[in-house]
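Bug #77: duplicate submission created two jobs. Keeping one. Sequence:
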Amino acid sequence: MIELKSAAEIDRMAVTGRFVGELLAELSGVAAVGVNLMDLEHHARRRIAERGAESCYWDYAPSFGRGPFRNVLCLSVNDAVLHGLPHDYVLRDGDLLSIDMAVGIDGWVADSALSVVVGTPDPADLRLIEATEVALAAGVAAARPGGRLGDVSAAIGEVAHSYGYGVNGEFGGHGIGRTMHEAPHVSNKGRPNRGLTLQPGLTIAIEPWFCRSTDRIRVDADGWTIRSADGSRTAHSEHTVAVTTDGPRVLTGRPGHGTASAGTVQKPGAAS
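Kept job's structure:
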């Protein structure tokens, strides 16, 4: 069942979204060569506790995981793209890190993700991150009342293909609101003018993720971490978005990056 939110309820989600966006921006600044993934995890735990928020990841136990997820962040490095378990790993020069988080405040949830390069960037990695951000902006732009859910999916897929990347349809975006995962599923590929009609009050997480040279994935023995099947680099961007009568409203915008941006993109050749 899809629950349409009132304008007041969307405003309450936006409070959560603002915190998520601010914390992700903060974490992307903390991430650097020599920083342990567990330092990022504990930093986020402190901030969430200080805000009186509640992690949607802690004790999350879906059918595809192995046991409850006892962390507040998904931290995925290099060929890992989704659901990466924070662990004892020190970031190295040139690592591509994806940070994903979802929290609830006063009963309303927001979910967002970004990818960054720590240290010296590889232009190919920056291009991959850029593709997810451009695809996210295209998906957001398509989330307009009267449109169809397939328009969002098709917009994401079109950007991926324009960059030369394939699209995996196994994991994508989702409805969100009172809980982290609600209906509908938001695929990263689809056909325009198909699927659910978008109505004001629909709130969804749009999250394009791409692998550099494959559209196939594999899962680690931990039952959580999803990697590219061929070991190529990966990237992930995500925002929580509300469909409103005035058009799409990004609820997880980040300081200094605008509402439709998924984060900072370093252009090839730019300083780290």
